[in-house]
Amino acid sequence: MFLVTGGTGTLGRHVIPLLREAGAEVRILTRQTIPGHLTGDLETGLGLDEALDGVDTVLHLAGSPKNDEQKAAHLVRAAGRARKPHIVYVSVVGCERIPVTSAIDRGMFGYFQRKRAAEVVIAESGLPWTTLRATQFHDLTWKVAEAAAKLPVLPALAGVRFQPVETAEVARHLVELALGGPAGMRPDLAGPRVYPMAELFRIWLHATGHRRVVLPVRAVGGAYQAVRDGGVLPGPDADLGAVTWEDYLKVRTSR
Fold first, then answer.
1. What confidence tens digit (pLDDT) does each residue in 125-170 have?
2. Rounded to an integer, what distance in angstroms lies between the CA atom of residue 128 and that of residue 184?
3. CA distances, 99 to each of 49, 65, 88, 232, 236 (Å)
4. Do the Cβ atoms of 48 and 82 come closer than 8 Å?
5. Which fold has domain 2-253?
6. What gap in Å lies between CA 61 and CA 143, rounded to an integer?
7. DSSP of 127-156, one letter per residue?
């Protein structure tokens, strides 16, 4: 039996069909009341004992702008009271390399700190676990560009590079890991190409027909410097996907 948290999100919508195609019995946990899904709240722990009853593997995909550590803590405590299932967690490349020591750091890159804290909770839980760190999804990169394009000029962090990955490729890796045994920390997963942030935006503008000037901007703080130094790029042993940013945009803009 598999339990998926965050099963209604961007990544979960790719993971669920793959698990079912593999013949897995799947439960989906959500805070909303949705027919066919289990209702539970990772922030409070409400409903987790019932959701985990009889579960062998948990794919913990639920993420949010806050409280990732608390959600992980509630999940592992409930899992420990159950049959101690294998926890498969999706994290973010570079979360252990981005120092978050100031309000500015937290405002811009606090997400990395929260993902790292959740990693530690899971790794130190005493439960069998596997963690996959992935780079930024193409879907997220689109949302960032779309939001930035609402401004008169499109600001891009100067000197910052990303290696975005296709969500479906992350889903396939996670399902393979979930169908196997506990494997600890896995190699990073990233897309096939590195892009300066400004280039990602320019490619998006061209693909979508928007007209904006891309304006490189500098930030301050240790986290920004770490990102400029390549802190969010994958390690040398990373697994690389095949879908480029251009490939993704071609498909999305043709719908």
1. 999 999 999 999 999 999 999 999 999 999 999 999 999 999 999 9
2. 8
3. 35, 17, 25, 12, 21
4. no
5. Rossmann fold (3.40.50)
6. 19
7. S-EEEEEE--BHHHHHHHHHHHTTSSEEEE
Residue 184: φ, ψ to 5°: 65, -145
Domain boundaries, the chain: 2-253
User: What CA dihedral angle connects 30, 77, 88 and 133, to 10 degrees?
Assistant: 100
Residue 208 vs residues 3, 145, 180, 201, 248: alpha-carbon distances, Å: 37, 11, 40, 10, 12
CA atoms within 13 A on the CB side of 106: 5
Confidence of residue 208 (pLDDT cuts 50, 70, 90): very high
Looking at residue 37, what is its pLDDT? Answer: 84
pTM for the complete prediction? 0.94
Q: Which residue has the tokens 């803590």?
A: 73
Helix orientation angle between 245-253 and 138-148, rounded to the nearest 10 degrees: 70
Return the pLDDT at 65. 66
